[in-house]
Amino acid sequence: MATRTGRVQRRAEALSRERIVEAAVELLDAAGETGLTFRVLTERLETGPGAIYWHVANKSELLAAATDAVVAAALAGESEGTPREEIHAVALGLSAAIDRHPWLAAQLLLQLSRSPGGPVTPRILEALGRPVRALGVPEEHWFTATSVLMHYVLGAAGQNAANRQVAEPAADRAEFLAGIAGRWAELDPEEYSFTRAVAGQMREHDDREQFLAGIDLVLAGVGALYPGGRA
Amino acid sequence: MATRTGRVQRRAEALSRERIVEAAVELLDAAGETGLTFRVLTERLETGPGAIYWHVANKSELLAAATDAVVAAALAGESEGTPREEIHAVALGLSAAIDRHPWLAAQLLLQLSRSPGGPVTPRILEALGRPVRALGVPEEHWFTATSVLMHYVLGAAGQNAANRQVAEPAADRAEFLAGIAGRWAELDPEEYSFTRAVAGQMREHDDREQFLAGIDLVLAGVGALYPGGRA
DNA sequence: ACCTGAACACCGTTCAAGT
DNA sequence: ACCTGAACACCGTTCAAGT
Questions:
Q1: Contact criterion met (CB < 8 Å) for A162 and B202
Q2: Is A91 exposed, middle or buried (0-12, 13-18, 19+ CB in 10 A)?
């Protein structure tokens, strides 16, 4: 929206990787993934493409850096409480970041499933894994439990954000979800009996409540498999 | 590899949406996402771009169609057994498809989190949801349980495929995983105590076993929350 | 109804040249 | 060491024109 606001940049300031990543995040926020272009970035930072390439290897590295910066900020807060509360807090924090930066979900999923060696996987693993460890899960199962949480949290948060994205106002959102539910209800009754049955819940469900219910389902599994824990 | 094999196409055959999607899948398989180009597609099908645009709205629709075609094929088999066995079978089927078509994971995650109205979501929802229903879960929790399974299965399968992709031979793969584990082991001991502890499991873990363990964790949660069921 | 293919607007990236 | 900016190779998409 406020695309032109603050266009008068601190142009005297030296170019740096930090400033470039910051500008990239702003462009992504304002216009989505297609909005980040070296031409636009070049205008915004009042330089030429060569200057940007001096600080950043290529566009994919720039996207990775933008993703990492936003995730790091989202996970920065110290949280306290029971392990379950902490996991909820991390999940809601990531979900909120995805809401604020609609391009984030796709980048996050792509990065996790394409370059698992990057810095973003350990960040999220650590944030969710600490409370999992505090739950009393035996060490050999830490990875499994945390992986399930991580994939669910990112997948579900991304989907919720996408639903919210298509139609900003709550009224349109209801209409949008009703549209999907309606299409599902028209599927072949035999081939899609489950999806049809679930279409109603799709329309009425409360995002936040559903989201946390999924987490609690995983935690219930943890509690059932490792009853010695403090879940 | 066999990029040039079978280049002599049935050129007399009429162009159709089906043939275009088929060719797109072949190009994606051979050269990844960057390998699918309207120029290359045009050569392969011996036409001009206009001809393709007559059958397909744009590239994003073409990618969606290719994704849906591959997923439909992967889920085609009728499966029988206990609900748990069925869920394992669907998950392994999707995982195998992602292995055969390395571009699939990213497309799937993008499509689920960007255009939830598409045909691919109901397909996967149905395949996983039917056995969930058979588990005896109360209807109001079908959606939650199936969502958790879906996001985990796609996320984990995508990550496994990515790990396998980087280094085809098993020996290189071990090296690759050891590389990630090694980098994790070098992270700050305080800030990343969990990730460091888990780095070892990362190196040694068996993909398939870990993958199914995650599913069983979710099913344990289902069994714990809805003890009346037949899990 | 279906296809041709030149043309358009745009993209990421490079690199010789400057300071 | 850091930046300039023209140039390169390539991309998705359009559209008047053909059959």
A1: no
A2: buried
A5 pLDDT exceeds 70? no
Question: Does the distance separating the beta carbons of B147 and A210 come in below 8 Å?
Answer: yes
Strand C contacted by A60 CB (< 7 A): yes
Strand locations in A25-170 (E): none
Residue of A78, A194, A203 to mutate when probing chain B, most B C-beta within 10 A: A194
The nearest CA of chain B is from the CA of A12 a distance in Å of 36
Whether the per-residue pLDDT at A21 is higher than 60: the answer is yes
Structure tokens at B156: 């984990």
What separation in angstroms does the CA of A45 have from each of A13, A15, A78? 10, 8, 34
- Give percent of chain B above pLDDT 70: 91
Q: Which domains does chain A have, with CATH numbers?
A: 1-56 (1.10.10.60), 79-225 (1.10.357.10)
Helix, strand and coil content of chain A, in percent to the nearest 5, comes to 75, 0, 25
- Indicate the pLDDT class of residue A173, thresholds 50, 70 and 90: confident
Nucleotides of chain C touched by protein CB (<7 A): 2-7, 10-17
Render pLDDT for B170-195 as a digit per residue (tens, 0 to 9): 677 778 888 889 999 999 999 999 99
**Quick check: B36 and B67 in contact, CB under 8 A?**
no
What pLDDT does residue A27 have?
A: 98
Within 7 Å: CB of A137 and strand C?
Answer: no
CA of B217 to C1' of D15 (A): 56
Q: Å from A135 to nearest chain B CA?
A: 13
* B218 alpha-carbon distance from chain centroid: 19
Model confidence at B10, pLDDT cuts 50, 70, 90, reads very low
